[in-house]
Description:
The chain is mainly beta.
Amino acid sequence: MRRCLTRGSVLAVLAAAVAAMALVQAPARADAELLRRAYDTYRSMAESSPSRGVPWQFVGPTNISGRATDIAVVDVAASRRIYAAYATSGVWLSEDRGASWRAIFDREASTSIGDVAVAKSNPDVIWVGTGEANLFRASMPGVGVFKSTDAGRTFTHAGLTDTQTIARIVIHPTNPDIVYVAASGHAWTENETRGVFMTTDGGRNWSKVLSRSPRTGAIDLVMDPADPSTLYAATWQRTRRKWSDPRTEPGSSEGGIWKSTDGGKTWSDASAGLPPPQFRGRIGLDVAASSPRVLYAFLDNYEAGRPAKEGERDAYGRPILEARIKAAEIYRSDDKGATWRKVSESNEYMSGHSGTYGWVFGQIRVDPTDPDTIYTLGLDLNVSRDGGRTFSRIRGTHGDHHGLWIDPAKPTTLYSANDGGFYLSDDSGKTWTYARSAGGVQFYNVVLDNSSPALAYGSIQDDGSRRGRVDLSQGRDRIPAVEWTGAPGGEGSHHAIDPADLNVVFSHGFYGNFTRTVVTPPAPAGAGGRQGDSSAAGTDMGRGRGRGRGAATNIRPQSNDVELRAQWMAPIVASTHAPGVIYAGYQFVYRSPDRGASWERISPDLTSNDPSRMLLKSSSAIPFQTITALAESARRKGLLYAGTDDGKLHVTLDDGKTWTELTGQVPTSRWYSRVVPSQHAEGTVYVTQRGREDDDFGVYVYKSTDFGRTFTSLAANIPAGSVNVIREDPGNPNVLYLGTDFGAFVTSDGGRQWSVLGGGLPSVQVSDLAYHPRDHVIVIATYGRGMYALDAQRLPQ
């Protein structure tokens, strides 16, 4: 007989426990060196996993890719090798000018790539710097630099583990053992491994040759093509906050341009003519190969510009309440960096060049044959043919540009790396070829519906939300990869399917802009797995708004007494107990009885609500101290748990009438990635936390069997985090599935011992996981390689 606890008795037990129990000792913070070593353990676990014979099957999308960060090219005999680096899906190689691609860096501790470089004196020597330096909120950390001496067939770790982000690698043109690395450092915390590093023995030993402080790293580095002993470096003082973009802050004074004329041994300040240091944001550099005395700097200037216009909003729809910064400016030096002069005009084109987030761009390239033709990379790819005075846009690619290669022998050939992947043009950008077979989609989440075949929904970095079939008609071991079509929601959206009507989807643009959409069934699958519309769902950051088939209704709650704070991926939940009831998470929990037509606030502020960790009326503000994980028990109506980005955890057993804080019962205070009430036992709940925003790669996963009165760690033998999701098997409460920044895990004994789940999955973040109880298929969303499915019935029992 199942023991039933009344609401009053449970609340009394919880209150007593919270009052009496001291905070459990938290695990030590896990650093990047632990992360790197942990991957060796993960690789061994994958090779010995009992389920390694059950393959992960790629299910798409086949029609889009993900963010590319850099390009390196080398011509060997009659062929050309193109290396395309991606933000979270490693390095890809094409040897047929982009017609086909293969991954060459998908079995390493980090497949987040900041830069890739090939030695001119030995085309088989390749250097890869891990850790994207663009600092998106979901950017993944790196574990240093890797080296290949066999054209990418194998790689060896070559140091600088604790840099975590690599902005540029420069190899000496005649000696491949001399290498320079611009390290921008930890994303979220200060660290010493920032600046310019140099090796003269191929990576066995490194020297820090340019350093400012633990707050300041090197964001770009170029070498004089006529004199390899002359180098120029750009430094950037920045730390990303959980509540703001990585912009200049009061006291910023260490950003600028530096020059060395002795091969990096000594450096001198070369910033004469630039804005004052406190206004210097990210800086990009390039040297004119045809006239090496000419240099260009692309600077994000934080000096106040024009006042905000009435009603002016940023790319996310938020009102701009302060003066616009001067933003994108181009500076030129005609004397090898001795002096600089501003050459770009101050106009709307330049102030809007990089939107309100110039810190993710900052790249500039000079035509190798014409010092007056330059390209700047921002929301668009821009070209100036008058030395930077005026610019025009080059169309035809995805937006948000991060890398550009110009063929030195034929400058009309351009290779572009942007948020949509890799693009190739042979006519100066008039037409482009898209390499959809390289890289991979960056999914934030996955939800499965009960249609037949089931549809998987997910939101994608800079490509809106999409849905695709998980088609089992050929068997669970032959699930095809298909094109995916548009779905309700933006590029950062959870999805909730109405249990009473599969065609009603609740989703989210960003920052709490929820909608209810009535969708229509997808078009029948055509030849080759196509399933209707395959058009790209977004062309730049912030434009991936809802694209479902059908009418979307805005259902954002209204608040007259306080401004609502909602995270980029704000949670929304459709109750399985009461048709039409949905819940949404801001700093409060809201409940709607009628699918969002009306709302009731059912909780107090469940966050710390600390004003010192907020920016008010600022364009760089990011909502923080918000609910990030919200779930209702499938067994008990009105039993909800809410976890926040600032480490708070609460429970209500009476649909929000009373809330009990559980924060002190969890050993760590980290960003809650998931709260999962058990479908098997009413008092059981699982919670996962991620330490990514603290540059902490520990394993934080906990279980409570008493409504949160006590928690037990389930970390066991999982080698490293962050932990993004945990799910129960619907048929066996001892079987749990876990998604981490390394991959997927499974346990059959309730978490005492874990093994790697399935076989053949590349190194990639598993951002979400769903088990379809009817089809017995597990689907994972990965942040960098799209979605995969696995036949759960073949897993060892």
